[in-house]
Amino acid sequence: MTSEVRSPIRLLVADDHDILRQGLVAVLERDPRFSVVATASNGEEAVAAFRRTQPDLAIMDLRMPVMEGPEAIRAIRAEFAEARVVVLTVYEGDVDIARALSAGAAAYVLKGMPSDELFEAIIAVHEGRQYIPPRITQVLDQAGRTDLTRREMDVLRLIVGGHSNREIAQELNTTEGTIKSYVNGLLGKLGVRDRTQAATAAIRRGLVKLEEAEKAKAERAALGNDIGNA
Question: Which residues form the Response regulatory domain (predicted)?
Fold first, then answer.
């Protein structure tokens, strides 16, 4: 009686960092259970590569240029309803996790975790199961409902960008008193005491991307220089 020989799981690896992507491919290729059939450096490439190779499973970074992970997952699953995706990322905010899972990811693994955990996630998802590590489950369990309005999100982004209430009022064409009301509401919804904690919570949870905050701060500094040189 001969033992059954299983074909390796065909994988697509999408990550915008070349060294990380190449390293991940090398680690996966050392395991006979896996075969990397395509790579991508952004979400748009990932969608095209999935369409071209139709792998058994995609390993997707969360934040990528051109098209981010959740958008790429939605695009893939809109075309291939049974597509299976493992998100592999450094971000562990509850909003980031919820975005990935609602887009259709079946697993959420952090890059700092041991490779065996990623392998376990790949096997589980390939077999049709979901894989959410206890650390990620704990984040989701501890997260409170945020339900921020669009205007509250506008105010929060500007807070993270380092703007004062007066500057936010000018940016949003409203009064400083109105902004103070928004800020007080934000503090309550986020469960924090002050603006600094609100900014920290916004980035940690994935409500505001760190790249957006850095861009806003750079724009604010440039504006200050322009005013000073006028």
Answer: 10-126
* Separation of alpha carbons 101 and 167, rounded Å: 36
Amino acid at 177: G
DSSP-derived letter for residue 66 is: S
φ, ψ for residue 11, nearest 5 deg: -120, 145
List the one residue out of 60, 2, 7 whose CA is nearest residue 35: 7
Q: Out of 2.130.10.10, 3.40.50.300, 1.10.10.10, 3.30.1330.10, which CATH number does the structure's domain 150-224 have?
A: 1.10.10.10
Please enumerate in sequence order all residues whose Cβ is within 8 A of that of 106, keeping only pairs 6 or more positions apart, or say none: 84, 85, 86, 124, 125, 129, 130, 131
The pLDDT of residue 202 is 83
User: If we measure between CA atoms, which residue out of 198, 98, 110, 192 comes closest to residue 153?
Assistant: 198
Separation of CA 104 from chain center? 13
Residue 143 token pair: 């997260």
Q: Residue 36: beta bridge partners?
A: 11
- If one looks up domain 9-142 in CATH, what number appears? 3.40.50.2300
CB atoms within 10 A of CB 150: 6
| Nearest in space to 125 (alpha carbons), one of 180, 182, 86 | 86
